[in-house]
Design goal:
Blueprint lengths: L4 E6 L5 H16 L4 E6 L11 H9 L14 H5 L2 E4 L2 H14 L6 E4 L21 H20 L4 E2 L1 E3 L17 H7 L17 H4 L16 E3 L9 E2 L1 H10 L1
Parallel strand pairs: 1-2, 1-3, 3-4, 5-8
Antiparallel strand pairs: 6-7
Length: about 250
């Protein structure tokens, strides 16, 4: 998966954005992704201070900690980060106004974290401030974590499912047997691109990213076949078992 630089932004950088920063960093460790993650605030209220005590307490409840010191967002962040992620709609609208004048055609994208809900639907994230009670911070933790998971999955991790041939295609896997025209047509759907010590063959990118579970067969000398994943665009290839571990880690 391509290396990314992500910045979470809220108003004061003491509650929701440092929480999102730590949550995302923890997900990076679990999934062995190497992204740079930071957080900032649009206002100078808390510059140089530690995050809010309730934010730090919720993180400790989940075995996490933050070494962050609050800082103010800068227009230079548009030039450095790939994604600037707003924690609420007010921050999102203000960032869009800043980006219009200061992004200068760079690759940086301004995103709203709550737009990354399950099944592509918008999610709800409790707004946080130093005056809110602990239960609001606790609810926001799980909401932010779920949206961060969906943000990671939106980067199109390609999980390739390897399967043994079905009994209907067994004749394709025994040397010395002639292929029928129908068998030969099936074999043409797959192109051999790479082979490892376990005998697994991978599909070409154009086939693997075509979408849908398209059944495939290989050349008579091959011992296994692969199935393409649902995702479009291949950035990281995982076998089915490793793919399940990746999703479980999230």
């Amino acid at each position: 998966m391509t290396f990314k630089k992500i910045l979470f932004v809220c108003m004061g950088n003491s509650c929701s954005s440092p929480m999102a920063e730590v949550i995302m960093q923890n997900l990076m460790v679990k999934t062995s992704l190497y992204w740079e993650v930071d957080s900032a605030g649009l206002r100078t209220w808390n510059t140089g201070r530690r995050p809010n005590k309730r934010c730090l307490q919720i993180l400790r409840e989940h075995g996490l900690r933050s070494d962050h010191f609050c800082r103010q967002f800068s227009v230079n962040d548009f030039l450095y980060f790939d994604y600037v992620v707003a924690m609420d709609e007010a921050v999102f609208k203000e960032l869009l106004l800043w980006a219009a004048d200061n992004r200068a055609g760079k690759h940086c994208k301004v995103l709203l974290l709550s737009s990354f809900g399950k099944n592509g639907l918008p999610a709800f994230i409790d707004s946080l401030s130093p005056t809110h009670k602990l239960k609001s911070f606790r609810s926001a933790y799980y909401q932010i974590k779920e949206c961060c998971k969906q943000l990671i999955l939106s980067q199109k991790v390609d999980i390739v499912k390897y399967e043994l041939p079905s009994t209907d295609d067994d004749e394709l896997y025994y040397p010395g047997k002639d292929n029928t025209p129908q068998d030969s047509a099936k074999a043409n759907h797959v192109t051999e691109t790479s082979h490892n010590n376990s005998g697994i063959y991978l599909l070409n990118t154009d086939v693997r990213s075509s979408g849908g579970l398209m059944s495939s067969s290989t050349d008579p000398s091959n011992s296994k076949t692969s199935m393409p994943s649902y995702s479009q665009g291949v950035q990281r290839k995982l076998c089915h078992k490793c793919g399940q571990k990746f999703l479980a880690a999230l």
